[in-house]
Amino acid sequence: MLFDDKDLSIFENDESKVYFKEIVQLYYSQNYRSSIMMLYSFVIYDLYMKLQTMANEGDDKATKNSQKSTI
Fold first, then answer.
1. What element of type H or E holds 28?
2. pTM for the full model?
3. Which residue, 30, 33, 39, 67, is most buried by CB atoms nearer than 10 A?
4. Mean per-residue pLDDT for 14-41?
């Protein structure tokens, strides 16, 4: 596999690491359609988690956007 744990260190969230490992495994097993769908879902999930982290750290814009997305 071309990715190892060192490459996954760019993700701060442990759930993101697991999620991305699954996407890579799908890709290498030639499940391309599934890997694309999972990658799209992962991008949305990762952006949401980063927005939540920024909101928890006190970013006003992130807090407002976070409140909008939960409604």
1. helix 14-28
2. 0.71
3. 39
4. 92
